[in-house]
Design a protein that fits this description.
single chain, 221 residues, alpha/beta, nine-stranded mixed beta sheet, 8 helices, 9 strands
C-alpha cells in the first residue's frame, strides 16, 4: 500500500473505484454542509474524479491532491473540455501543480503536503481516500487531514463489511473507527447508511456478502 502500489494501479488502469458520474452521496448530501457557495473544497486522493467537475459546475473552488500524474493529466483534460479553459501544468518545489481559475490540483505525496501547499480550506470531501488506506495509514491520514484543513467540515463516504471476506482496498471503516479518527475534534452525523452489495457485483464476486455505505457529515466541535 505504498506510493508505488497506487502508481502501478493507475499505470495499469486498474481503477474500478473510478465513477463516470458524480457520486450520489455527494449530489444528495452536499447541500447539508455548513459552507457557502464559492468557498474552497479540498478533495484528498482525488484521482481523476468527476466529482471535482461537479463542484466546479456548482460554483465552488477546488483543490485536489493526488499521487498519480496520469490521473491528474486525465482530470485536467476533462476540465479543459468541460469548461473550455487551459489548465496550466508546471513543477514547483518538487510538486506538479495544475492551475486554472478556481482550480488547484497537486500531484505529490499526500503525507508530505503542508497547509501552505494546500492553501485555505473551507470544506473537505472524502469519497475514496480514507477507505483506500490500510489501518495505520488511516490514522496518519486522518490526523494529517485535520491539521492541513484546520478541522474544516467534511463530507465523508465510508464502507463497512467483513474484512475477512476481502482484503481491500476499499477497506472497511465502520462508524466506531470514524469516531476514533475524528471524534475528539469533530461531531459525526450519519446522513445515510445503506446496503450496497446488490449494486456492487464486483465485490460479491470477491466474496463479500454484505457491504454497507455510510455518509457522514463531520463538523468542528
Amino acid at each position: 500500500m505504498d506510493t508505488e502500489f497506487w502508481k502501478e494501479r493507475w499505470g495499469k488502469d486498474e481503477t474500478g473505484f473510478h465513477l463516470d458520474k458524480p457520486n450520489p452521496a455527494l449530489v444528495n448530501h452536499w447541500h447539508t454542509m455548513p459552507v457557502d457557495l464559492g468557498t474552497r473544497v479540498l478533495v484528498p486522493l482525488c484521482g481523476k474524479s468527476v466529482d471535482i467537475i461537479w463542484f466546479l459546475k456548482e460554483g465552488y473552488q477546488v483543490v485536489g491532491a493526488e499521487l498519480s500524474e496520469k490521473a491528474l493529466d486525465a482530470l485536467a483534460y476533462d476540465i479543459e473540455g468541460e469548461f473550455g479553459l487551459a489548465v496550466d501544468k508546471q513543477e514547483v518545489d518538487g510538486l506538479i501543480l495544475y492551475r486554472a481559475a478556481g482550480i488547484l490540483l497537486i500531484c505529490g505525496d499526500w503525507f508530505a503536503l503542508t497547509a501552505r501547499d494546500i492553501g485555505p480550506v473551507d470544506a473537505v470531501y472524502d469519497r475514496a481516500a480514507l477507505v483506500a488506506l490500510p489501518p495505520q495509514m488511516r490514522v496518519d491520514y486522518s490526523q494529517h487531514l485535520l491539521n492541513i484543513s484546520r478541522n474544516a467540515p467534511q463530507l465523508l463516504v465510508s464502507f463497512a463489511y467483513d474484512q475477512n471476506q476481502m482484503p481491500g482496498p476499499p477497506f472497511s471503516v465502520p462508524e466506531d473507527e470514524v469516531i476514533a479518527h475524528y471524534g475528539s475534534l469533530m461531531h459525526a452525523d450519519v446522513l445515510d447508511d445503506r446496503e450496497l452489495i446488490d449494486h456492487e457485483p464486483r465485490f460479491r464476486e470477491r466474496g463479500v456478502t454484505s457491504m454497507r455505505q455510510a455518509v457522514y457529515r463531520l463538523t468542528p466541535r
